[in-house]
Amino acid sequence: MKVVFLETVEGSGSMGEVKTVANGYARNFLLPRGFAAPATPQVLARAERLREIEEERQRLEDERALGLVGQFEGKPLVMAVRVGEQGRLYGSVTNADIAQKAGEILGEELDRRRVLLPEPIRHVGVYTVNVRLSRSVQPQILVVVVDAAALEGPAAAAEALLRIREEAAAALTTAQVRASGGSNEAKASEEPIDEGASEPGNSTSDEDDAPAS
Fold first, then answer.
1. pTM for the full model?
2. How far is residue 175's CA from residue 67's CA, in Å, rounded to a whole number?
3. 109: phi then psi, degrees, rounded to nearest 5
4. Which whole number is the average pLDDT over 153-175?
């Protein structure tokens, strides 16, 4: 069924958008709740104005989201959980858990669907997770999962994991630079050197050596 979205429905459509959706989805969910209407000529005539309203709403939401991004700078989310053998969690860290922790930093509730976690986290470690604060603003935040019973305490355990991560990244960068430099040196050494060659624009012929008459 072809419908016009009268409101933005997460994962389905934006206000003013014209889309073809499954008949059952339209009849059982979108239409009864007033989220969309059949794409009749009268409704289609309203679509452009609805899109303009939605674009303005998104612009304001993006501005607000940009202001929130800074609150995550230098503030990794530390998730202290029960851990078993080999760093495997007894349970898991889900997008709902991360949303709750992120909400504590933001000072407001964050919808778990805005945490773009492909699958639950089941091991201790440092993870990079995207958070959709708005349609166009999706910062990456660090999530550090540590053992709640760590002898040094969860905060110190998190700092240790972050330090290991930084050292590993620095070592990898150094190795890449050395590998790149080594290959360039090897390439240069393989190129034959023509001792008789001259710089472009300079001639070594006898005629050029002769004095001008």
1. 0.64
2. 37
3. -70, 140
4. 87
